[in-house]
């Protein structure tokens, strides 16, 4: 089968992801929109991740770059560096996108009325290790439409979390990323980038559920929650300092309180989600 030049690059950073990487890749290969490429940046995997990827033997997987161990942010940046298309989606190794995800994202960002948008984002479901759909205590959603940084940043800060979503919930323009790059940090790598992209253009909410984010006991563990709380708390203060004309003192105060509440909500939810 002949494939056209890619309009969108799906960039998958991996590290010991053999358990779910095949499902993740299949979710991309089975898209209704086929003008894409998949590029892989592997971060020193010691399991069968790379071999599983190679076994697909699919021409749409155009690059597999194996790195020595680096930071997650560096691996994300390398994955994007491999991209050759004008639109980019970063997809983590255990998440999945629904069949019409790329079609709807590409269509939205290709419309002339949305040429001022640096990225689009959608709502996602929450699933467990075995793919069971679960209740999400921190899920946020936006009405479909364009949002400027002055509209979106206060809402982000007040949320005390990441209402835009994890990487698979976002597709951004390559040219916008070049202005905003690189990915930085540890626990708010994605949210930090979404704000930097907002500094280059609007965010476009699609108002639909188009992907699923996989959680496990480790990702919702108490120690990790403490670290994420500290990072989100600091991020909140940084946004107040960096954008004092957009983020008010009250926004910052509400966000810090909400961050505290969200941390306990995650701990409570983890006992219910992972009890079986």
TrEMBL record:
Entry's Gene Ontology molecular function annotations: hexosyltransferase activity
**Entry-linked InterPro entries:** Glyco_trans_2-like (IPR001173), Nucleotide-diphossugar_trans (IPR029044)
The residues that cross the membrane are none
Q: Which organism is it from?
A: freshwater metagenome
Where in the numbering of this chain does the Glycosyltransferase 2-like domain appear? 9-136
Question: What name does this protein carry?
Answer: Unannotated protein
């Amino acid at each position: 089968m002949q494939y056209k030049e890619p309009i969108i690059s799906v960039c998958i950073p991996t590290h010991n992801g053999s358990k779910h990487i095949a499902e993740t890749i299949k979710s991309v290969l089975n898209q209704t929109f086929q003008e894409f490429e998949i590029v892989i940046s592997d971060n020193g995997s010691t399991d069968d991740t790379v071999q599983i990827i190679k076994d697909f033997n699919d021409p749409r997987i155009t690059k597999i770059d194996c790195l020595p161990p680096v930071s997650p942010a560096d691996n994300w940046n390398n994955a994007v560096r491999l991209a050759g298309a004008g639109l980019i989606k970063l997809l983590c190794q255990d998440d999945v996108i629904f069949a019409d995800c790329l079609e709807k994202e590409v269509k939205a960002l290709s419309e002339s009325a949305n040429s001022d948008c640096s990225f689009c984002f959608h709502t996602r479901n929450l699933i467990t290790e075995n793919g069971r759909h679960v209740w999400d205590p921190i899920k946020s959603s936006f009405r479909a439409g364009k949002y400027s940084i002055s509209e979106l940043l206060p809402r982000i800060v007040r949320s005390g979390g990441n209402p835009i979503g994890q990487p698979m919930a976002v597709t951004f323009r390559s040219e916008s990323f070049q202005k905003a790059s690189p990915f930085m940090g540890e626990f708010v790598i994605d949210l930090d980038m979404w704000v930097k992209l907002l500094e280059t253009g609007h965010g476009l909410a699609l108002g639909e559920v188009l992907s699923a984010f996989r959680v496990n006991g480790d990702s919702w563990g108490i120690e990790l929650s403490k670290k994420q709380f500290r990072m989100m708390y600091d991020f909140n203060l940084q946004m107040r300092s960096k954008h004092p004309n957009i983020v008010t003192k009250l926004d910052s105060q509400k966000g810090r309180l909400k961050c505290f509440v969200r941390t306990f909500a995650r701990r409570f939810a983890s006992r219910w989600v992972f009890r079986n």
